[in-house]
Amino acid sequence: MSRSEIVCCRVADREPECALAQHAIENGHMFNFEATKILDREPILGHRLFKEMAYIHMNQHACNKRADASGLSSVYSGILAEIHKLQTGL
Q1: Interatomic CA distance for residues 57 and 77, integer angstroms
Q2: pTM over cut 0.70
Q3: Among 33, 24, 76, which residue's Cα sits nearest to residue 55?
Q4: Measured between alpha carbons, how far is 36 from 23 in angstroms, rounded to an integer?
Q5: CA distance 1 to 31
Q6: Which of these, 2, 21, 24, 59, could form a disulfide with 16 (CB 3.0-4.6 Å)?
């Protein structure tokens, strides 16, 4: 992550507004934006937001704020947990 990419998520002297920049600053991690992959595409906004919450919920190592998935129903949380167990064998 270049300095300009981190700075773009900051406003003046406030904390970073995006979780990715916050993670990079706090942990000294660098991200290779040239090698990013698109995991899914969804043209319908409501479906896309649900899929984003599902991906965040199922990936405990995601650099998203957990609040990004806070709107996920507990019914879906249970189903996604079962899917995650099946996919990872955990």
Answers
A1: 8
A2: no
A3: 76
A4: 17
A5: 5
A6: 21
State the residue for tokens 């970073």.
16
DSSP labels, 15-43: PPSSHHHHHHHHH-----GGG-------S
Cβ 21 vs Cβ 10: under 8 Å: yes
Radius of gyration of the chain (CA): 15
Residue 45 CA to residue 2 CA, distance in Å, equals 30
Residue 1, token pair as written in the block:
């992550």
Distance between CA 43 and CA 70 in Å, rounded? 22
Tens digit of each residue's pLDDT (9 = 90 or more) over 37-51: 888 899 999 888 888
CA 2 to chain centre: 19
Token readout for 5 is 């990419």
